[in-house]
């Protein structure tokens, strides 16, 4: 595949096409103005009070509880999405049945549906008097207005990531590899656990990482269903908003920096995962 | 292969039924039920209250504001996407991979943080706050802030679709045209643009849906002034928190309709023009 990329640089070939300086100049200008300078404003803000100020803002019990909830629940949501995403992708890629196309298109709904709409719909659905919430009340289960409501919303918005990263890889594996394993005497369970899942591992992890990253930062679909009780069901993005409303800019920025750092780490991890899966093709 | 032979890798019927049932049940409960609920609640008291809710002046103002913000943000990001894809896909220069990573960055930033960064630049305690107040320029709690936040959250859409697409297409056609004496603009308009038009349309479609639906980032910079700085998603929140459920779900139904139209067009483009989209959408 990479053999095509082998090029013999001709003298001056870079300048056969026009518009390099113009397009790169505009790209860098726009990127710097819209993304980089405002992000810089965020990064240096909490440190105006020094490391101590940053640490004080971050280490209050309420902030720590919100970070724990956001990160913990999105890790759990990524796990749930990976398990169900695997089953959904398997069915959509391997089986042929009427309505498959519609079912496949619906997977992208959490991408397309505005988060506020998803938020009030989930909240109404899982409230104790809602269609699903009322079914759970007899069993003493409450999802809305508890930390588990946060999980429901995060699973909702994260699902397309795991399904969409698994589908193309699952399609590529094809029957040949599995048939080879079967011919060599592997049982069906062995084929799945020893051949298919290891081949899918980069895609599984990529999907999980994307769902996790999205869940950590998610706001709109969560705040309606979470109940937003400080120390219990208050997510970190909401606490940023609360601190802004109290004009505690440094405090809001401190939480923002932690979340931004997490985004950077996830981005690096995703790039690493991509390099890993590319090396296994 | 005879019909009587099943492949050793075919799942037995009971497993197909089980996994199929899990898939349909999971998607039905998790994804479809919320969608059904939106429309049911919007028309809970009939068509009259629905129409009344969506034609109410504050709702119309929120529709207008959302459309204006998207009408500014989407073309700007499209222009940026084409420019970025042109220099990244058609030229070689050091730091290209890093540049692509930076362009992708807004997708991994929390919407709330996306709004927060503009508050820290333009807010009262922000970098430019004193200057802006002194010159009576309103960025936050006004249209410019809403547009900036919308631009940020939809920043990578067009670029990340066009970069792989234009890299796949290479630069032979453009180089041939340039060698034969075509002008730069002529080459772009007659060679490049026809080659990327479906990819461009595809990404503009998704960019537009997100621009109209963005909630978190816009919520931080808007100031929530009813009928003035409330976009459609913010108006949904306001109505919902005021216990006006029919109103909240009526505006939600408009947004859900938009999402469904976007999904339908997206599927149509993936099915009809798969070869002319970035390779990641081809199954």
Q: What does this molecule look like?
A:
Chain A is mostly helical. Chain A has helices at residues 20-44, 50-58, 61-94, 100-106, 109-112, 115-126, 133-136, 147-183, 188-217, 220-226, 236-245, 249-279. In chain A, α8 (147-183) packs antiparallel against α9 and α11 (236-245) runs antiparallel to α12. Chain A is globular. With 283 residues, chain B is mainly α. Chain B contains 13 helices and no strands. The radius of gyration of chain B is 23 Å and the shape is globular. Chain B starts with 12 loop residues before the first helix and ends in an 11-residue tail after the last helix. At the A-B interface, α1, α3, α4, α5 and α6 of A face α1, α3, α4, α5 and α7 of B.
What is the first-to-last residue Cα distance of chain A?
A: 10 Å
> Roughly what fraction of the amino acids of chain B lie in strands?
under 5%
- Largest interface: which pair? A-B, 92 and 101 residues
Helix content of chain A: over 70%
